[in-house]
Structures are given as structure tokens and as C-alpha cells.
């Protein structure tokens, strides 16, 4: 299957404030008041054993899809710290069936026959059916990302760059079209972990966190999220892959991520969250996630609304660079734009879906890698002229580029300044 990833500077993070990477190699494609930081944070989740049955999904209640998503005025929202004083509860039966057959197949280096593949397929479907209701799109400020609910009272895990900072209003977007209001809690910028809390009344569908230390290279994993933004008539798409390695508080898999996936869950075949989508590299197999171990280790600080750490392990302020705010595919003669994100640079300039970008400031653009290089060479907020073909007619657009932190997860690696 054909797949394409956009070039470096068009991505900001996996939130939809810039260009998204399009890679469908593993896609299954199926149809505020500030939190009371001073209050006692939620208790840490139970440290499950690897074979312990995770909590079952709960029915959800929230405002209907058409209701106003704006958070309540100050003083009307419940305190997330007060609401979240109970850890996820244990249950007596596993939500995702698990037996000796799938255990044996999951331990193999690779499937050996059609029966193995069918067994994996069946297990993945069970995981998806269980986890999809708890996988949500989130709007924080002007950014859009993903999150996963991990307790029936509405605690949710996301990426740090999606949450951004504590005490921000959040709109949760469910796959069935419902919305709920909430706030951001803690953020650890060093590893890109974050926590959110739904402040509307639950209970909410949720999936359990895997126990710390339960993930190994070669494990099958399922990725869910809201690539390219939330769509009311689309459930969170599914991608399947395996864990490649884990080091420096980062989990690397070949589960293909694209724009909007940031904050979504990485699940094992038991239906437990083993990681949270964070960023992508230059290669299609370079997809990075925050290990669930990091959330276990810093639970009290995240739930208590603390913010700490430098960008991706450094205390230095993040540098900034330009971004455009489109997604698309490389074609012969340019870059076909398949999505333009509302409110960002390309959208404000008048670039449309279906346009083919052919040049930037007079320099020819043959593919997204070249477009990325040219955007990256610009100063943040610089004005450039982008040439496009629209319905066979040449057009020029004057575009004032946006600004994003280089060190935000999701911005692919840049060459060293040295």
C-alpha cells in the first residue's frame, strides 16, 4: 500500500496546528474553572500485575453533540481534584478475552500461518471495540489532539504538548458525536506526558493502564487516535504494529502516526494502555510514545496539576520555527493539498484542499520533503509567496507563516546547528 510522510517543518506536533504526516501502511480505516491544585490529587492507579484483569468499560453520559461545548463560567465547574479522588477500579473479569492461543501467538517472532493471522485479527477487533469509546479528540485552546480516558470519573491521559499547561479549558469530542467539558491537569514537558479531567458528570467509558514494566520489544500494539482532526462521522482509525525498542523514557513502534494522533492511546492486545502517542521521526517506522511507566511514576504530580521539565529533557527554552498548516500527498509536479486546517497560515491565506503547491518564493517544489525544507528555512511569521495550481489555473498566495516551538514533539529532527 502506498504511504507518504510529509517533510520536517510542516509538522508542529501531532496536534493539528501544522502539517500532518500521511502514512497509511498499517491503517485499518474503519468507518472552566481552574482545578483546585491545592486539593489532594487522585490516588495512584492500582499497580496491576500483567495478568490481572483490567477494568471494564462503563456506559457514558455527556451533553449531546449539538450542545454548547464552551466550559461553564468560573465557579460552576466541579473541582477536578475533588472529583478525581478515586483510582480506576478493579473488576472481576477482563474486558478483552485472553486465552492460551492468543498468548502463544503473541509470543512468536511473527505469525506462522493464516490461523495465527486470523487470531491476531480477532484480538485486535476486540481491543478496538473495547477502547474506541474511551478514545477522544480534545480541543485545548486553538490546538486539537487526542486523549484516552482511564477512569470512569473522567481522568484522561494525553501528550504534554496537547495539554500544554495546567488549568486550561478542554472540550472532549467522543466518536459518537457527544461533547464534554473539562480542564488540563499536570504536564511533564521532559517526557511529553499530560493529564486531563472531564468536569461534566459521568460515568465515562474508560480503558485501564497497563502495569509498569509490562511492555517488551516485539509486543503487538494497537494505535488509536484522531488523525487529521476530529470528524463526527468517523470513529478513531486503527493502526497495528509492534514495539521496536524503549529507551530514555520513550517507546518506539512501527504503529504509523499522523497529525492529530498526539495524546491517543497505544494499547496492548489485552486492551490496556501501554503508551501515549507523542511524536514522529523522519522514517515511517519512527513513531514515538510516552511509556505508561512515566504516568505511573509521576501520577501524583500529574493529577495534582503540577507542570515541570524542559522540552524533551532539556531545561533550555524551546526554539521556534515556521509552519504552514496543511496536509497532503506528494504527486508529480508538486504537493497535492488534501486538508487545510482552519485558522492557520494556509487557511488564512486562501489555500484550499485540492490545490497543488508548485513553488515557494520562486523556488520549485517537487514534493513535500522539498516544501518542508523551504518552510523550515523561513523565519517564524515570515511572509512568503506560494504558487499553486487550482483547476489547472496558476495562482499565487501571499502567506504569513505561523510560529511553533521546534522542540515540541511531532516536529521531526532538524540538523544540528553546529
How is this structure best summarized?
The protein is an alpha+beta fold and 418 residues long. The protein has helices at residues 80-83, 100-106, 114-131, 160-163, 292-297, 299-303, 345-349, 368-376, and strands at residues 135-140, 143-149, 155-159, 169-173, 179-188, 193-198, 220-224, 238-247, 250-253, 265-268, 273-280, 287-291, 307-308, 320-323, 326-331, 334-340, 356-360, 363-364, 383-390, 393-400, 402-405.
Question: How would you describe what is shown here?
Answer:
This protein has 418 residues and is of the alpha+beta class. The protein has two domains: 282 residues, Thrombin, subunit H (Beta Barrel), CATH 2.40.10.120; 86 residues, Pdz3 Domain, CATH 2.30.42.10. Helix content is 14%, strand content 29%. The protein has eight helices and 21 strands. The strands form four sheets. It has a six-stranded antiparallel β-barrel with strand order 1-2-3-6-5-4. Strand 5 and strand 6 form a beta hairpin. Helix 2 packs across helix 3. The longest helix is centred in the N-terminal third of the chain and has 18 residues. The chain is globular and about 60 Å long.
Amino acid at each position: 500500500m502506498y504511504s507518504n510522510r510529509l517533510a520536517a517543518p510542516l509538522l508542529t506536533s501531532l496536534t493539528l496546528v501544522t502539517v500532518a504526516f500521511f502514512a497509511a501502511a498499517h491503517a485499518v480505516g474503519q468507518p472552566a474553572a481552574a482545578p483546585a491544585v491545592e486539593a489532594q490529587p487522585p490516588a495512584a492507579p492500582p499497580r496491576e500485575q500483567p495478568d490481572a484483569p483490567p477494568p471494564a468499560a462503563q456506559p457514558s453520559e455527556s451533553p449531546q453533540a449539538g450542545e454548547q461545548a464552551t466550559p461553564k463560567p468560573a465557579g460552576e465547574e466541579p473541582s477536578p481534584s475533588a472529583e478525581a479522588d478515586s483510582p480506576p477500579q478493579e473488576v472481576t473479569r477482563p474486558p478483552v478475552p485472553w486465552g492460551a492461543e492468543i498468548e502463544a501467538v503473541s509470543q512468536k517472532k511473527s505469525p506462522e500461518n493464516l490461523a495465527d493471522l486470523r487470531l491476531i485479527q480477532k484480538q485486535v477487533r476486540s481491543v478496538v471495540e473495547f477502547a474506541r469509546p474511551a478514545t477522544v479528540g480534545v480541543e485545548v485552546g486553538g490546538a486539537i489532539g487526542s486523549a484516552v480516558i482511564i477512569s470512569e470519573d473522567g481522568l484522561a491521559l494525553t501528550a504534554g504538548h496537547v495539554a500544554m499547561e495546567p488549568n486550561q479549558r478542554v472540550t472532549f469530542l467522543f466518536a459518537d458525536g457527544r461533547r464534554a467539558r473539562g480542564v488540563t491537569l499536570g504536564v511533564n514537558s521532559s517526557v511529553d506526558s499530560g493529564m486531563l479531567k472531564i468536569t461534566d458528570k459521568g460515568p465515562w467509558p474508560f480503558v485501564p493502564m497497563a502495569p509498569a514494566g509490562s511492555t517488551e520489544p516485539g509486543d503487538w500494539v494497537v494505535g488509536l487516535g484522531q488523525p487529521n482532526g476530529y470528524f463526527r462521522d468517523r470513529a478513531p482509525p486503527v493502526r497495528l504494529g509492534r514495539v521496536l525498542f524503549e529507551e530514555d523514557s520513550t517507546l518506539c513502534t512501527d504503529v504509523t502516526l499522523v497529525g492529530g494522533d498526539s495524546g491517543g492511546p497505544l494499547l496492548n492486545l489485552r486492551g490496556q494502555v501501554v503508551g501515549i502517542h507523542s511524536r514522529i521521526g523522519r522514517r515511517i517506522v519512527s513513531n514515538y510514545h510516552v511509556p505508561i511507566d512515566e504516568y505511573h511514576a509521576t501520577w501524583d504530580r500529574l493529577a495534582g496539576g503540577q507542570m515541570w521539565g524542559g522540552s524533551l529533557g532539556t531545561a533550555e527554552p524551546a526554539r521556534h520555527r515556521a509552519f504552514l498548516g496543511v496536509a497532503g500527498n506528494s504527486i508529480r509536479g508538486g504537493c497535492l493539498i488534501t486538508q487545510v486546517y482552519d485558522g492557520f497560515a494556509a487557511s488564512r491565506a486562501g489555500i484550499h484542499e485540492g490545490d497543488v503547491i508548485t513553488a515557494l518564493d520562486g523556488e520549485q517544489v517537487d514534493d513535500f520533503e522539498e516544501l518542508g525544507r523551504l518552510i523550515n528555512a523561513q523565519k517564524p511569521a515570515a511572509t512568503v509567496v506560494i504558487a499553486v495550481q487550482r483547476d489547472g489555473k496558476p495562482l499565487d498566495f501571499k502567506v504569513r507563516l505561523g510560529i511553533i516551538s521546534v522542540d515540541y514533539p511531532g516536529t521531526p529532527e532538524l540538523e544540528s546547528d553546529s
